[in-house]
């Protein structure tokens, strides 16, 4: 059974109403179907505005599709009772691009990471502190950081905190929405390494949303290319990147740096 199965989902948004175009809607996602298996990474690439984030938001339940269905662990995400939805949600996490706006600046790093734990588990303060310390270590930060505040960390460190929060409940799937895009290239590589290690250790699945084919080539097992709300091409083996055929995919490919600059 696949971990995530998306069947024919579509999402439209109202476009600014004008005298002539009254009631017009923008088709952000059009009839998209895809599957994602446990422990694998599906790269989702496409130019800006192609619908990648909207698709991610529907998977996370932040937006409701106009049409189609999303099954997570075999259950229809939009037909669950509140209790069941809460249970399922702990298996479904997200890391966004903007690490600073993803956290409450008034909370300490320890409290930021403990947030999901408090929602789902009843731990004593000592147990919670131990758990937060372990999570910080897991993402390559010293437990001493738990008393700091977001503004005291670099972008790369804070993105590690966001990752620690995302893995706190041992999820099955993390949506990585441009999660490394705003970091400098060196830090990007470190965070990608961390994500690859965590994927292996926890059998995590990722939906890796980006417009960076280079990063996708490193992280993903499979690839979907989006254009104007649709999946225009799927690649079942990321190693076959050169076999992308659609002109839009080829254009994305040609904008990449050489895969092996020294090779
Ligand atoms: N809440 C919204 N209201 C109206 N239009 C929206 C909304 N969210 C997204 N859109 C529009 O839907 C389309 C798809 O947007 P989306 O953010 O999913 O694309 P994307 O591929 O993630 O782009 P980017 O790479 O720039 O983040 C765009 O035209 C966008 O302007």
Automatic annotation (TrEMBL):
Q: Name one GO molecular function term.
A: ATP hydrolysis activity
Record keywords: Lipid biosynthesis included?
Answer: no
Kindly list the GO CC terms recorded for this protein.
plasma membrane
Keywords on record: ATP-binding, Ion transport, Nickel, Nickel transport, Nucleotide-binding, Transport
Report the domain of life of the source organism.
Bacteria
In this protein, which residues make up the domain named ABC transporter?
4-253
What SMART domains does the record point to?
A: AAA
Record InterPro entries: AAA+_ATPase, ABC_transp_ATP-bind, ABC_transporter-like_ATP-bd, ABC_transporter-like_CS, Nickel_NikE, P-loop_NTPase
Give TM segment ranges.
none
Q: What is this protein called?
A: Nickel import ATP-binding protein NikE
Which species does this protein come from?
Brevibacillus fortis
